[in-house]
Design a protein that fits this description.
This protein has about 140 residues and is an alpha/beta fold. The chain is built from three helices and five strands; from the N terminus they run H-E-E-E-H-E-H-E. A five-stranded mixed beta sheet has the order 3-2-1-4-5, covered by helices on one side. Strand 4, helix 3 and strand 5 form a beta-alpha-beta unit. It is rod-shaped and about 115 Å long.
Length: about 140
Amino acid sequence: MKLKRASTRPQSETIIALIDVVFFLLVFFMLIGRMDATAPFDVAPPHAQTGRDMPAGGVTLAISPMGDLALDGRAIAAETLASKLTVELVKDPDLRLRINAHRDTDLRHVLPFVSQAEGLGILDVILVVTPERSAASGGRP
């Protein structure tokens, strides 16, 4: 009687194919899934208005990248801004505040002044922006 000896060839690994399938499924679901939190209601962001003349009147608050302030071209400390805006608000109850922040200014330097203006009763706050350059205008803003 002749007995067969067990083969010494390595068995093919069937687990490798399963790992590939699991990896592809993981990538697929990561790509199609939403990663951000959704609100329980519909949120429509506002539209920016560019190409229009800036409204006249009011005061302009300039903010440097480091958070330095200037009100109508004169340097001002953040602590005295509220009193200065209150004086302007007494002169003109419909005061308009334009905030002109440098493009490299952190948002943490801008948002407190929007809240401060709202707290003082200034209802019209305009954030000054530069429109993107378009190919149709030849690279000019």
